[in-house]
Write a structure and sequence with these properties.
Layout (H helix, E strand, L loop, with lengths): L18 H18 L22 E6 L15 H15 L3 E4 L8 H10 L3 H18 L15 H15 L1 E4 L4 E4 H10 L15 H9 L4 E11 L4 E3 L18 E10 L5 H6 L8 H11 L1 E10 L5 E6 L10 E4 L6 H4 L10 H4 L5 H12 L4 H5 L8 E8 L6 E6 L11 E4 L5 H9 L47 H14 L3 E7 L4 E2 L12 E3 L5 E3 L37 H4 E5 L6 E6 L13 H4 L12 H8 L12 E4 L6 H15 L12 E3 L3 E7 L5 E2 L5 E3 L2 E4 L2 E8 L11 H7 L2 H10 L7 E2 L5 H15 L16 H19 L3 H18 L5 H11 L4 H10 L16 H4 L4 E7 L2 E8 L5 H9 L2 H7 L4 E7 L3 E6 L1
Parallel strand pairs: 1-2, 1-20, 10-12, 20-21, 22-27, 28-31
Antiparallel strand pairs: 3-4, 5-6, 5-7, 7-15, 8-9, 8-14, 10-13, 11-12, 16-17, 16-19, 18-19, 22-23, 22-26, 24-25, 25-26, 28-29, 30-31
Helix pairs in contact: 1-26, 3-4, 21-22, 22-24, 23-24, 23-25, 25-26
């Protein structure tokens, strides 16, 4: 907006709290904290241990989600969560805890690489410059971080251990019987001893190295495979499912995404699906986030069923409605299904419906054309409830195992490889999508679940499927089994047992969760510590060769293609540095020096944030990622936290699935292998809201500078033209960003901290209003004035005890503010402090020292700079940071009297001032004896008296 909102006219009083004074105070105390190591949290051992005695206290580990060091710097919306965790951490320190609070940088990622491509600047150079800028801005906020513990994922000393963890994952497998990860060497020992047979029964030592590697690859928690991936030609890289938008485009750059089959690294996160699901119940997370993870994991119980299909063997399906097997009249495979090539015949079978062929001369032509069409759609698009169903007949038939009926096999894009087996048995009478497909392709619709909505079992007149779990099975009798007359639950049990007895199916559990695609065709990421021998077998580097550092390259960009070129394939920047790629190494495996080729993909940007909470604990350890004793102290299980983890983790709800799910997986894997005592990374999660700002757009829809917009007569104008206004995100591209530096200059950092915390509940979004900032500035001015004479700069407090009214106001504030601080209700804590400060201002006269000191301590977590200054002026030489938070005296927190409402027939007849501790019997007698109540009853008898001491008496006349 064009108006300016000065804090206040500069006063004549030389010692008034002003923006200039705030800047001086804040700079001095920030320097003091840094020099004194005020926020350094000692470890129980190691290089960060000390003799301060702090580790004898209970601990509190407070974390923010990793920031990315953007070149644009911060706007006032960015620090919201950082200020909140700082306030909470300060309160916990003052409440007797040894508090670990620090911040690092998630420094790998696409933005720096894109900048490098555009400018030729090495990503490390631009990222380091961005980190310097952001660190300076965060320092101005007075955040109490232990700077010794700060890390950046791009530092070799950090990503050495990211690579080391990858090696541990590669060298591990999930033992379903033990329900945990175990070293791969223990699996090899089972194969070598014969305790676990090989797939074809041959002895382990009779297998070639390639055969052994392939078998182990089916078990490893990190493995390379040829699988359908999300390929974005416009970016030149593959993407995880979570990085693709609902309309089938890349989350970053908005490029088209296609399905392609490539050899990529994956993490077997599906092995942990049950534990990832079950352990959510014991985490203190928002229920909405838990539900998103449950939905993403997607556990469902059903059965696996095999449909024989010629010489190709069988098509296996997973279904949750095995009770409807007699109603399966066709099958559908996902377009990417590996069996398609094996079952497609050379020519259409005699009598094939024309509508099934898609107008193609051969099944192969039809399948090829349809696959290309489907590859351009996202999984979300393919599953959308579109009115028109598409697909094509493969030319093959499968055998329904219960009826012996030959059913046609189609491919259609509404079936995904990412769920179940990538194949379905279609029961069109009882599934709406199958029904629509059957109608479009003139396929039979057979009712096997008796409708309860008045329809007959004749489906010819149906306009949609009938789906119910509370109905009776019909038309389901075979040669040696019948389900007729059974309910759904009993029918499921009977058919599952029947399938299992014949070896053509079994009861099973399925998950929506897919293994995590872990490769990226990028430069600016962690190199894989993997080399391939001449037989193409993957070997991980020994720890002595870590970190494997990124080499220099001439071109930082992966090769990109026409965004619509679905047939293109990746070419990575690392592959161009041949002297780095082709190497001779002795891996210490007893084979001497051999020639290898390095992996030329890099890890995704999620890798470092999967475990950084551990490195904060022990950031300089060169022997391991974290010392076990240190990890146990900060993150080990304890009462109320059965899986351990960070005590408070604050960040955006947008990371509900990606980062949080991946970090939980790595945490559980490290726990299984004995490296950590915590099976979960973050015990308590809190999602802060967003600071929003008004976006102004001209007639073209282009954002215009918000600071230059004028408001006239309820409308908004920019350069003489009317513009629209809508509340949205704050950001540089929307031309509505307000920088912290602007607020620092106008009011000071403490005012910005107070305003952001006072705007509303922390977990909801709220609009920024520069005009409202001055309210918190004035609160600090009144606070200063209550302690310091603005004319002389002398402290005005007096000795002695305050009057009872002031003591009651003080202790009620202490009690309420403490509860609010612990509950992250900083807006209401500030309201209580404001109320107390206003009371003290209106009372007139100097404050007593005890009141002034406790007032300063109340404010200290929220506005630490002015609190330090006032604490020092009050005669203290030690920092306010480690002082005890005030404790309320219960004698002053209880009201002297409360108002009791007396009702007759629900209408208020009297109000009584009574003691808060009055009993029900005493209150009843007092109410019945009140003159107004006696008059209202007018001699009527009393049938019932309901007493809720001390606030309510309800009298029911006879």
């Amino acid at each position: 907006m064009s108006e300016t909102y000065p804090a206040a006219a500069e006063p004549a009083a030389p010692h008034r709290y002003t923006a200039a004074m705030a800047a001086d105070i804040e700079a001095r105390w920030q320097d003091f904290w840094a020099a004194e190591g005020t926020y350094e949290a000692p470890n129980p051992s190691g290089d960060l241990a000390d003799d301060s005695g702090l580790t004898a206290r209970p601990k509190k580990y407070v974390m923010d989600m990793f920031p990315y060091p953007s070149g644009a710097g911060l706007h006032v919306g960015h620090p919201l969560g950082y200020i909140a965790t700082d306030v909470f951490a300060r309160y916990q320190r003052m409440s007797g805890y040894n508090v670990l609070h620090t911040l690092g940088f998630d420094a790998f990622g696409l933005p720096a690489e894109q900048y490098a491509v555009q400018t030729g600047t090495h990503p490390r150079v631009s990222t380091e410059a961005n980190m310097v800028t952001m660190t300076a801005q965060l320092r101005r906020l007075g955040l109490g971080h232990d700077k010794r513990r700060s890390v950046a994922t791009m530092d070799p000393d950090f990503y050495k251990w990211t690579q080391w963890i990858f090696v541990q994952i590669f060298n591990s497998w999930y033992d379903k019987d033990a329900d945990r990860a175990r070293p791969i060497s223990e699996l090899v020992a089972e194969f070598e001893s014969g305790g676990r047979p090989t797939p074809d029964g041959r002895p382990w030592d009779a297998l070639s190295a390639r055969e052994r590697a392939d078998i182990l690859g089916e078990y490893r928690l990190a493995y390379a495979s040829d699988a359908p991936v999300n390929w974005a030609p416009g970016l030149g890289t593959v993407l995880a499912n979570e990085e693709v938008t609902a309309d089938g485009r890349s989350e970053r750059g908005n490029f088209p995404v296609f399905k392609a089959k490539l050899r990529q690294w994956n993490m077997r996160i599906t092995a942990y699906a049950d534990r990832l699901l079950n352990d959510l119940d014991e985490l203190d997370w928002p229920e909405a986030i838990k539900q998103q993870q449950r939905n993403w994991i997607g556990r469902s119980e059903g059965a696996r069923v095999d449909f024989a299909v010629g010489e190709a063997g069988a098509i296996t399906v997973f279904t949750t409605r095995q009770d409807t097997l007699f109603g399966a009249t066709y099958m559908v495979l996902a377009p990417e299904h590996e069996l398609i090539e094996k079952i497609v015949p050379a020519a259409w079978p005699e009598g094939t419906h024309q509508v099934w062929t898609g107008g193609h001369a051969t099944p192969a032509d039809a399948v090829t054309a349809y696959r290309k069409q489907a590859s351009s759609k996202s999984d979300v698009e393919r599953q959308a409830e579109a009115k028109d169903k598409t697909g094509v007949f493969t030319g093959a038939y499968a055998t329904n195992p219960v009826s012996g009926e030959q059913v046609p096999v189609f491919i259609a894009d509404y079936v995904l490889m990412g769920y179940g087996t990538g194949a379905i048995m279609a029961v069109p009478a009882h599934d709406s999508r199958d029904f629509a497909f059957a109608r479009a392709f003139e396929l039979p619709v057979r009712c096997v679940v008796e409708p309860t909505d008045g329809r007959s079992t004749d489906t010819s007149e149906w306009d949609d499927a009938f789906a119910s779990y509370d109905a009776t099975i019909v038309n389901s009798t075979g040669t040696d089994i019948t389900l007729d007359g059974l309910g759904v639950v009993d029918a499921k049990a009977r058919i599952t047992a029947w399938l299992s007895e014949r070896g053509i199916g079994e009861g099973t559990v399925n998950f929506r969760l897919r293994d995590w695609l872990f490769s990226r065709q990028r430069y600016w990421g962690e190199p894989f510590p993997v080399v391939y021998d001449e037989d193409g077998i993957a070997h991980t580097l020994p720890e002595s060769m870590l970190p494997l550092e990124l080499p220099e390259v001439d071109d930082y960009s992966p090769r990109t293609f026409d965004p619509d070129d679905a047939d293109s394939r990746p070419e990575t920047p690392l592959s161009r540095n041949e002297s780095w790629v082709d190497v001779e190494l002795d891996l210490g495996e007893g084979e001497g020096v051999k020639r290898y080729r390095r992996e030329t993909n890099t890890m995704p940007n999620w890798a470092g944030s999967c475990w950084y909470e551990l490195r904060y604990l022990d950031p300089h350890n060169s022997e391991r990622p974290v010392d076990p004793d240190i990890e146990q102290y900060w993150m080990g299980p304890r009462e109320g936290q059965p899986h351990g983890g960070v005590d408070l983790y604050v960040g955006g709800a947008e990371h509900a699935v990606l980062h949080l799910l991946y970090a939980r997986f790595w945490s559980k894997m490290l726990f299984d292998l004995g490296y950590t005592s915590s099976g979960e990374p973050f015990h308590k999660l809190y999602n802060q809201g967003m600071i929003q700002a008004f976006v102004y757009r001209d007639a073209r829809g282009i954002a215009v500078p918000a600071a230059e917009v004028e408001e006239r007569d309820g409308a908004y104008w920019y350069e003489g033209a009317k513009v629209s206004r809508i509340l949205g995100k704050m950001g540089k591209s929307l031309k509505n960003a307000v920088t912290p530096d602007e607020i620092f200059a106008e009011y000071g950092a403490d005012t910005l901290r107070l305003y952001e915390m006072a705007m509303g509940p922390l977990d909801v979004s709220r609009p920024w209003d520069t005009r409202a900032v001055v309210g918190q500035y004035r609160l600090l001015q009144r606070l200063w004035r209550n302690v310091v004479d603005e004319a002389t700069g002398e402290v005005t407090v007096v000795e002695g005890e305050a009057d009872e009214v002031t003591l009651r106001a003080l202790h009620k504030a202490i009690d309420g503010v403490g509860q609010d601080m612990a509950g992250l209700r900083f807006n209401t804590a500030i309201a209580k402090i404001t109320e107390l400060n206003n009371h003290l201002t209106k009372a007139g006269g100097p404050l007593t020292r005890s009141v002034a000191e406790r007032l300063v301590l109340l404010v200290a977590p929220l506005a630490p700079h002015i609190s330090e200054e006032l604490w020092r002026k009050l005669g203290h030489t030690d920092s306010v940071v480690h002082q005890d938070f005030p404790v309320a005296d219960p004698a002053y927190t209880v009201d002297e009297a409360v108002t009791c409402v007396v009702q007759i027939k629900g209408k208020v007849k009297a109000r009584l001032e009574v003691s808060p501790s009055i009993t029900d019997e005493e209150l009843e007698a007092l109410a019945l004896g009140d003159a107004a109540v006696v008059a209202a009853l007018d001699g009527a008898g009393i049938r019932k008296v309901i007493v809720r001491a001390p606030k309510l008496v309800n009298i029911v006349p006879a």
